[in-house]
TrEMBL record:
UniProt organism field: Cirrhinus mrigala (Mrigala)
Leader sequence residues: none
Name this protein carries in UniProt: Uncharacterized protein
Listed PROSITE patterns: ANK_REP_REGION, ANK_REPEAT
Taxonomic lineage: Eukaryota, Metazoa, Chordata, Craniata, Vertebrata
ANK repeat extents: 11-43, 44-66
Gene3D superfamilies listed in its UniProt record: Ankyrin repeat-containing domain
Pfam family for this entry, one: Ank_2
Keyword Cell cycle set for record: no
InterPro entries: Ankyrin_rpt, Ankyrin_rpt-contain_sf
Keywords of the record: ANK repeat
Length: 66
């Protein structure tokens, strides 16, 4: 079956949010190329860009802004 790459866990986090927060550039790029939402928010209103910036993951922040 198909996998929902924009699916959220109980905290409202998507795979892209985890990649942005942890700094997994390759995973983030693959998810972005697959067309995941860059505007999704966690249950606390945080976006992938905010999560990347909060951890100093500049390369992911750059890709999220493209």
């Amino acid at each position: 079956g198909d996998v929902d790459l924009d699916g959220k866990n109980f905290g409202g986090w998507t795979p892209l949010m985890y990649a942005a927060y942890i700094g997994h550039d390759n995973i983030a790029n693959l998810l972005l190329e697959a067309g995941v939402s860059v505007n999704a928010t966690t249950s606390k209103g945080l976006t992938p860009l905010m999560l990347a910036a909060s951890c100093g993951n500049e390369s992911i922040a750059y890709f999220l802004l493209q």
